[in-house]
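Standup, Tuesday
Yesterday: got the pipeline producing structure tokens again.
Today: sanity-check two examples.
Blockers: none.

Example 1:
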Amino acid sequence: MIINYWLCCLLAFAAIQASPIASAQSTGASVGALSPAVAKVADAAVAGDAESQYTLAQMYNSGSGVPKDPAAAVLWLQKAANQGHANAQYSLGTSYLLGDGVPKSTASAIEWLNKSAQQGNSLAQANLGAIYLNGDGVAQNFRVALSWFEKAAAQGLPLAQYSLGKMHQNGYGVRTDETTAAQWYARAAAQDYAPARQALAELKRPVPPTSRTPTAVAVGPAVTLPAAPAAASPEQAAVLATVRDWAAVWGRKDVDAYLAYYADDFRPPNGERHSDWAAQRRTRIDASKRIAVDIVAPGVTVSGDSATVRFTQKYTSDRLAETSEKTLVLARRGDAWKIVQETVRKAASAGK
């Protein structure tokens, strides 16, 4: 999802001026090389019709009837967005979010997504929800994320319904409630949204009897974690369950859920900003075709609202195999445990 395109403004300006429809902006005339249908859209866009400007931007973005030109697409999106066109505002916001045709800017992305969302665009609402859920360029805020997801879900957007299911299942800004999570998953699944079908099936799957014994059990795809010892206190069991779930979503490459296990005040080990660290983690996880995480011999200590978990981590993917000694420091945040510090001492690795 994180894509970095850094465009040279002068080259982008030259590309726009060189394109036939962009040239028509100053002349107001149709260009003979264009098909009659495209020329009609271009003439209406030049005349100031917002819907035609948005249509023309889509054509430039896809290369339909005109040469593909992200910079020209943004030019026309800007014109339509300035006239209050909700879909253009959403598309312009995502362009800034991804750096597609413009330099990447989370602030500009939020500005335009917010304008579109205020007009009821469900995709803009869901994108804002994701930004605040992940803390992408802003302070992570589960309540704001929840509010935007609820608005989009009320309009029937399956992505938002699925995201609400995740938030209720994992206790992000709300009490953990698997019944409510299942209801949201079911709504999205009814629209044939595959991730929701999978999440609903996993939620309904009975817990294997072995998970209540000290033997190792499988948690998620290719993730093996030992269950909490029978003598563990309820707090130790809750902390270990959090680490177990953290490893499971990592193994499933569910980046949003993975990042949500980290607290707003999480301190990345190399001193970088939380948002930069999160972006880097998203890129690395998305780049791997498969991930497997094994947690070996975890030890849990709890003191008040702080907990420390030490374990051997065996990580394998299509790009890297690595064994390390890891320590996670967690803090109680409401009804959930969140990671506030993570340290790693690598033992062995083999890259591909």
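Example 2:
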Amino acid sequence: MNNFQTILVAIFLAFFVFGVLIFSGVLKVGGSKTGVNAISGKLVIWGDLPKGQVGSLFENGLPSTSGSFSVKYVEQNKDTYQQNLIEAFAKDEGPDLFILSQDMILKNSNFIYKIPYASYPEKAFTTSYIDGADILLSNDGVIGYPLLVDPLVLYYNKNMLSNESILYPPTTWDELFNLSTKLTKKKDDGTILQSMIALGQYDNVNHSKDILSMLLLQSNNPIISRTDTGYRLAIKDALPNGVAPFEQIVNFFLEFSNPSNVSYSWNRSEPNSLDMFTSDKLAFYIGYASELFNIESINPNLSFDVAELPQTKGTSIKRTYGNMYTMVVSKKSKNLTSAFGITTFITAPDFLKELATATSIPTMNRSLLNDKPADPSMLTFFNSAVISRSWLDPNKEETNSIFKELIENSLSNKLSVAEAIDKASNQMDLTVRSYDTKKK
């Protein structure tokens, strides 16, 4: 997208936002103030992005030519954010806008002011943002404004690869699979001294649910899909060739913790996968782009780099999993005019660029992702952002328990993989059904 197209999109977005206000009756035309001059009062934004990174940007980085409005950003703890929202809205003390990751959207759908397609056409949205942002398109309109995406990437130990004359990190899972004999080192009794990759267990593999989700999304399974009446669980859907990919995915995941397999590289006695990587004992670590600086701070002497995640061999699509941060407007805002109004500033390319710089993770804005950074790590993050996908997890605590039980039932042979998937699917289906109006 060139500069002229970017400017046009920004202008159209501004018109769409104010169209929402007029369409909904929130903004009265013919008054003494119009456009950005109609924005006034104190606005509160909640989010779990660190205030040290974004607070000043939200509070001081939004243009207010007349000084008629102010913004306060309140950082929320990830563990208590949901409960704080419920309690605040119950007391009519909730924020005017709040930033949600994809696993909080369905839970808070009753609090979100959705933007009608009459005001914000679906085509305008899909033209502006990455394909993965489409999860924000509901039957009732656009759920919110995409801000940032934190993609899963592949961190790798450079010394371990070069010691084995491995020139490049794997680009496919098949390539990764074949590296195990070179990169996994064991004692005679089978004790793992150095591991290729942390897969096959649940509790000591960081982001295990997200990794399984990523593998599903790479198989072109959306996990949850939108219907005319809400949402349905798609985790067991078969591909056009009749193959249900989830069983294959779980079997692949478990291969790495089976001592009888060549790819055996992980077991439940190993430390946390991040600790193993930063201790210089793990060749590949699947982690988020946002973990880069943390890895550097834990072990400044670690020789590592980052690459895009491997893909399925022979596939025509590329996917990774991404945590997506979205700005939504509260239905209960006492100042809806201004709440919608400042989103014109927040969704502007210049502001999103500053937000991405402050957090060191990419935006979901197509035009900004097209402007490739010179830094190699950031370039990998940008490229991974373009192919990021996610799903509207209806209850992250429940689904985490379900995925954990699935893996542990399979590992212990308490259930076959197929039986464990059936059980997990039935459990998840109950949660997803509550968001389908015909099944309530």
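Quick observation on example 2: The two ends are 43 Å apart (CA to CA). Confidence is low (pLDDT under 50) at residues 6-11, 20-35.
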